[in-house]
Design a protein that fits this description.
Layout (H helix, E strand, L loop, with lengths): L1 H18 L10 E5 L1 H10 L2 H6 L2 E6 L11 E6 L3 H9 L15 E5 L5 H8 L7 E6 L4 E5 L2 E4 L7 H14 L5 E5 L3 H17 L9 E7 L14 H8 L2 E2 L2 E5 L5 E5 L5 H6 L4 H23 L4 H51 L10 H12 L6 H14 L5 H9 L10 H12 L26 H9 L8 E4 L9 H7 L13 E7 L1 E4 L5 E4 L3 E2 H14 L2 E6 L2 E2 L1 H9 L5
Parallel strand pairs: 1-2, 1-3, 3-4, 4-5, 7-18, 8-9, 9-14, 14-18, 17-19
Antiparallel strand pairs: 6-7, 8-13, 10-11, 11-12, 15-16
Organism: Caenorhabditis briggsae
GO molecular function: syntaxin binding
GO biological process, one term: presynaptic dense core vesicle exocytosis
Length: 575
């Protein structure tokens, strides 16, 4: 969904405006020049063929040296930052013959609003007389998957820029959602009011759907999920292998490095990414069978006709063979890590998180800490894994027992005392957050086929409450609409074909956004905590979308793995 919406936004507001001549009906051609932010957004939703068919002759990296093309117009898609603007200005130096400059003209599209200082810098430069177009297209968010997005990397924790990114998402999707903020987090209210203001400023010349709900919350709503080992394929790949930003890197049979893009263009990845390891291992047999069939198909030809046919199909066979081998390697890598050292650790994590064993017996704090001690005293386990276990335990025992168990754990492990600052920081975060119904332990999921996957991310419960219209308005407060006010959904859906006639009514949309948190500790210092969403929460969004027949989008400032969550908690040491 997100990919298609961003792609159409670019086609309508950037490419078509330059490359279609209304009189001749022919396409003009330009060079597309992208900075890092522009590259991320365009690459997320366009393939090379799509860009070429949109009238682009060449795609260039703004940061690299480029060959001059003085007879061609340039389309720049960039973030409004000094470095990118200075690079564009250098493309059009003063007192240079037209045929010697980089491009014939500049059409500049900023991904987000540009400040006055940078606009003045452009106006005072030789670039100004070469500009044909300068527009803010408000795409300062990045589609990560079809239902997952992050805000612009330029935000750097700036709450107002985060709000602008969310507003640009709503505008791109032609949504005017009901806005809710987590009442325990004052900055979520600021973000929601800013979104409301920005959407009013942006307006829209297209029909806008109000059958949508946006909830802004902070990470403290669920501190346990980012620490747990998740045994679905995508989450394991991100946690345990060299998988990052949709690319899996591994070593082939002859030890050379190989890469495999794992994204939603791959049907097999879409099928497998949210499956449990136990189900993945069942698929290994069929994948191995596929590999054998590929080998047989490429080597069985005896007649000249069969050999010619095999040669003709060889590129497709080789591509499929490489893909199957990569999936087998990924499954084996995850399986090996699980059975080598993680099986008992993950079982303990789940027991502590849900507070009962797979057989249904309640686990006491003493039982948990005794089992925990056997792991945290093992120097062969990494510090990060031991810290994860300690944090899960400390977050689930209750505030009144902190001191008793913290000191006990500290003296029964060789983890350096300075690393325990991570635990102190997490407990500080938990203590400063008010009690929430969603912070308390929830009943275990109905489907407990896998003892190692009994915990449900608490975002699932929030989605259920939203869908049932039972979300507590004291905890998740409305912006711009009082409790009990009449909703506009039925009127809007009827107006745009939601009744018995016209086009089918579109699915209701729910957008959830998770931000970090900043506490004022003492002036001028602040204590900040990471935001981010986890792969298990991403999986939950897709699952809940299917069962509720609702389009659910999940956003944040980053995608969390347990390792980068722990690393962000380390941060500056507390005094």
């Amino acid at each position: 969904m997100l990919y298609a919406a961003v792609k159409q936004h670019f086609l309508d507001n950037v490419f078509m405006k330059h490359h279609h001549d209304p009189q001749l009906g022919t396409k003009k051609h330009s060079v597309l020049v992208l900075d890092k932010s522009g590259m991320d957004v365009v690459n997320s939703c366009f393939k090379i063929g799509d860009v070429a068919s949109s009238g682009i002759l060449l795609v260039e990296d703004l940061a690299k040296r480029r060959e001059p093309m003085a007879s061609v117009d340039a389309i720049y898609v960039v973030a409004p930052v000094a470095q990118s603007i200075e690079s564009i200005i250098r493309d059009f130096p003063r007192a240079v013959r037209p045929e010697a400059q980089q491009y014939r003209s500049a059409n500049i599209y900023f991904l987000e609003p540009c400040n006055d200082e940078l606009f003045r810098k452009i106006a005072d430069s030789p670039l100004a007389k070469h500009i044909k177009t300068i527009v803010e297209i408000n795409v300062n968010f990045l589609p990560i998957e079809s239902q997952v997005f992050t805000v612009s990397k330029q935000c750097n924790g700036d709450m107002m820029k985060i709000a602008d990114g969310i507003a640009s998402l709503c505008a791109t999707l032609c949504l005017k959602p009901t806005l809710r903020f987590h009442s325990d987090f004052a900055q979520s209210a600021e973000i929601c009011y800013r979104i409301d203001q920005k959407l009013k400023e942006m307006g829209s010349d297209k029909p806008v759907s109000t059958d949508a709900e946006l909830v802004v919350m902070d990470r403290s709503i669920d501190l346990v999920t980012p620490l747990l080992h998740e045994l679905t394929l995508q989450a394991m790949a991100a946690d345990l292998t060299d998988y990052s930003e949709g690319i899996y890197r591994y070593r082939g049979d002859n030890r050379e490095e190989k890469i495999l893009p794992l994204d939603e263009t791959d049907d097999l990845w879409e099928e497998l990414r949210h499956q449990h390891l136990a189900d993945i291992l069942k698929r290994v047999h069929s994948l191995t069978k596929d590999l054998k069939q590929i080998h047989a198909a490429t080597s069985s030809g005896t007649s000249a006709k069969e050999v010619k046919s095999a040669i003709h199909q060889l590129p497709a066979f080789l591509k499929k063979k490489a893909r199957v081998e990569a999936y087998l390697n990924l499954a084996e890598e995850c399986r090996g890590q699980y059975f080598n050292c993680l099986e008992k650790i993950i079982l303990l994590e789940q027991d502590m998180a849900v507070e009962h064993t797979p057989e249904g017996a309640k686990i006491s704090d003493s039982q948990a800490v005794n089992r925990l001690s056997t792991f945290i005293m093992q120097p062969t386990l990494t510090t990060d894994i031991r810290l994860r276990l300690i944090l899960i335990f400390m977050l689930t025992i209750g505030k009144d027992k902190d001191e008793q168990f913290f000191n006990r754990l500290l003296h029964h492990t060789d983890i350096p005392e300075e690393e325990f600052q991570v635990v102190k920081k997490m407990l500080n975060w938990r203590d400063k957050a008010k009690a929430s119904a969603f912070q308390r332990r929830r009943p275990p999921p109905e489907d407990e086929r896998f003892p190692t996957s009994r915990w449900d991310p608490k975002i699932r419960n929030i989605i259920q409450e939203i869908h049932a219209k039972r979300l507590d308005e004291r905890e998740f407060k409305l912006v711009g609409q009082k409790s009990g006010a009449p909703e506009l959904r039925s009127a809007m859906s009827a107006r745009y074909g939601g009744g018995l006639t016209g086009r089918p009514r579109e699915k209701r949309k729910i957008i959830l956004f998770v931000v970090g948190k900043v506490f004022k500790v003492c002036v001028p210092s602040k204590l900040s905590f990471p935001g981010g969403v986890t792969y298990s929460e991403m999986r939950t969004v897709y699952e809940m979308s299917k069962v509720s027949n609702t389009t659910i989008l999940l956003g944040s400032d980053s995608i969390l793995t347990p390792s980068n969550f722990i690393e962000s908690l380390r941060g500056p040491k507390e005094q």
